[in-house]
Amino acid sequence: MKTLSANGLTLGYGDSIIIDELDITIPKGEITVLIGANGCGKSTLLRSMARLLKPKNGDVVLDGEDIAKMATKEVAKKLSILPQSPVSPEGLTVYELVKQGRNPHRKLLKKWSGKDEEAVNHALESTNMLELKDRFVDSLSGGQRQRAWIAMTLAQETDTILLDEPTTYLDMTHQIDVLDLLFDLNEREGRTIVMVLHDLNLACRYAHHIAAIKGKKVFAQGKPEEIITCNLVQDVFQMKCDVTFDPMFGTPMCIPHGKGRCIFANRPNPASANIG
């Protein structure tokens, strides 16, 4: 089964090494979430997998081919990336933004086709943005703006979508809105989705596969229910916690230790809920 992988990948900026001889394989048709402490290299890894950052060593393989040897348009037909907090040109409508997702499929001087229009409309419908297509992007709310950018990546019609912290700066409602949208895309269309998330509980709820980055390598990876334990959270984030079950989904739920107001007369023993 063809997929996206990195082999012996070393990344950095100047003399600073961020990722060192890292190996990872992204499961095809699933949602993979990259987790780890700030500065551990999650975003750097994502950029390299989209060929936005040249490796110092190693390679990224997409559908059996070294991504560095592929033509830019060929990569863009198979893989799309949504960077953290993207900024659109002033005065651009949602429709105009989403149309840009068709650029990899269009040749110089080729007219806008019915297939292009169909792809844009499908992307707008899938993200519930059709009614807002004539609105200026910079006039939208944070959640609407993020859906517009996701619509642009969908119009690109790639099997694999990479997203760098797609819920950053969004309130709770819009975080769930965006993650539900990505979950539906995976369920309905089988898109392979790779994203960086900071909220460990949301990562556990939405991911089929989690990869924890620490020490410039993949520290642990697997299904959330198999790898998310108190020990892993302590090792990766240097944070004491208890891990129990999400009462709605049955997925791991991390309860961090720390100071705070306790309404119980006697603080209960948190170890009683520990599953890791």
Automatic annotation (TrEMBL):
UniProt xrefs under SMART domains: AAA (SM00382)
GO MF entries: ATP binding
Designated name of the protein: ABC transporter ATP-binding protein
Keywords: ATP-binding, Cell membrane, Ion transport, Iron, Iron transport, Membrane, Nucleotide-binding, Transport
Location within or outside the cell: Cell membrane
Keyword Protein biosynthesis set for record: no
Domain ABC transporter as annotated: residue spans: 4-240
PANTHER family, alphabetized: IRON(3+)-HYDROXAMATE IMPORT ATP-BINDING PROTEIN FHUC (PTHR42771)
CDD domains: ABC_Iron-Siderophores_B12_Hemin
Keyword Aminoacyl-tRNA synthetase: no
Origin species: Virgibacillus sediminis
Main location: membrane
Membrane topology type: Peripheral membrane protein
Family annotation (Pfam families): ABC_tran (PF00005)
InterPro entries cross-referenced by the UniProt entry: AAA+_ATPase, ABC_transporter-like_ATP-bd, ABC_transporter-like_CS, P-loop_NTPase, Siderophore_ABC-ATPase
